[in-house]
Amino acid sequence: MQLGFLGFLGRQFTKQAPVVKTDLTGQTVLVLGANTGIGFEATKHFASMNPQRLILACRSQSRGQAAIDKLKAHTGYSKAELWLVDLANFDSVKQFADKFEREGGRLDILVENAAIAADHYEGTKDGWEISLQVNDLSTPFVALLLLPAMIRTAEQYSTFPRLVIVASEVHYWVKIEKQVYENPDILKTLGSSEYCTNKVMQSRYMLTKLLTVFFVRALNARLPPSTAVIIDMVNPGFCHSELMRDAKGVAGFMFWLFKRIVAFTAEEGSRQLVYAAVGGQPDKLRGEYITGGHVEEVADFVLSPEGVKIQNQLWDEVVDILAKVDPRVTSIVDKHLSA
User: Fold this and answer.
1) Does the active-site annotation cover 284?
2) What is the pLDDT of residues 309-322, one digit of tens each?
3) Quick one: which of 51, 225, 237, 273 has the most CB atoms within 10 Å?
């Protein structure tokens, strides 16, 4: 499938369905990137469903606590927990996973919403371009490290936990260049300062969301069908958020104006996250791309022979990179996933 600009606009002016509701009594919900935008609006919806635990994973103590206070004021829910994690720092992700092993218990819903959009190269202390690390290395890192908890939850409580990763329709509008995917180290190439020219960085966010699609499909393909964990990805649509808050100049003004005209509210976008987490028939959502409350085909490039090859190579690269950061990744992949 391909998505043109007119098709995109048509979706943006389509009325969004009401939020899906269910009873989350006794369950644990964890939302990454929960202090603002669609992540915060999703936590408000989850809070209204009476979860036993609702964990807001945020990078900032002050902004996270402000979100906790705001959530209580808006919903009356008083059991929300603030956990800190910086996805631009692998050590922080490891500490977050360690904390969940000690204190997390069951995990019924994990929504990975945190992402950044960078328009120029910025390296992390781990040696990666920051948006690539946050969106396409640390997001898989969290998913893999918390997967055993979701599998245990399914076995102990006879439930269908869901791992939801926020993707985007912008993945239709970008491809990986042939000279890059024919390289034995795709991610190292994409994350190098030499490759990340100003021109390349203009489409970096779209590329990171394409990589998200590849990861979700690769992970789902390796999860045995008998495992009662549902992995899916969701497009919230173009929403009011802080994603492009650093955009400046003419480009920043044009983005602001376009957003004022066509963007969904953050609450409207959050309904898609909630649908991916609690809506639909679980078995029909495995590995699927969800938009507008229904499953839709991903980009033709993803489904092409080149895309299939890239998907498998990226999987191997992600696992190799993360296993060097934390040996638990290797044991989790070997124990819970097929080759």
Assistant:
1) no
2) 999 999 999 999 99
3) 273
Token pair of 145 as six digits: 């490290």
Q: Which residue has the tokens 């987490």?
A: 277
Q: From the candidates 77, 121, 172, 205, which is the catalytic residue? A: 205
Cα dihedral 247, 251, 254, 258 sign: negative
Q: What ranges do the domains of the chain cover?
A: 5-15+23-334
Amino acid at the residue 170: V
CA 192 from chain centre, in angstroms, equals 23
Query: Tokens at residue 86, please?
Result: 């910086």
User: Whole-structure pTM over 0.85, yes or no?
Assistant: yes
Q: Which two tokens stand for residue 19?
A: 């939020």
User: What string of H, E and C letters represents the secondary structure of the chain?
Assistant: CCCCHHHHHHHHCCCCCCCCCCCCCCCEEEEECCCCHHHHHHHHHHHCCCCCEEEEEECCHHHHHHHHHHHHHHHCCCCEEEEECCCCCHHHHHHHHHHHHHHCCCCCEEEECCCCCCCCCCECCCCCEHHHHHHHHHHHHHHHHHHHHHHHHHHHHCCCCEEEEECCHHHHHCCCCHHHHCCCCHHHHHCCCCCCCHHHHCCHHHHHHHHHHHHHHHHHHHCCCCCCCEEEEEECCCECCCCCCCCCHHHHHHHHHHHHHHCECHHHHHHHHHHHHHCCCHHHHCCCEEECCEEECCCHHHHCHHHHHHHHHHHHHHHHHHHHHCCHHHHHHHHHCCC
Superfamily of domain 5-15+23-334: NAD(P)-binding Rossmann-like Domain (3.40.50.720)
What confidence tens digit (pLDDT) does each residue in 65-124 have? 999 999 999 999 999 999 999 999 999 999 999 999 999 899 999 999 999 999 899 999
Residue-wise over 8-17: b if at least 16 C-beta within 10 A, else e? beebeeeebe
- Catalytic one among 44, 77, 175, 209? 209
Residue 196 and residue 201: Cα distance in Å, rounded? Answer: 6
Torsion of CA 253, 258, 259, 264, to 10 degrees: 180
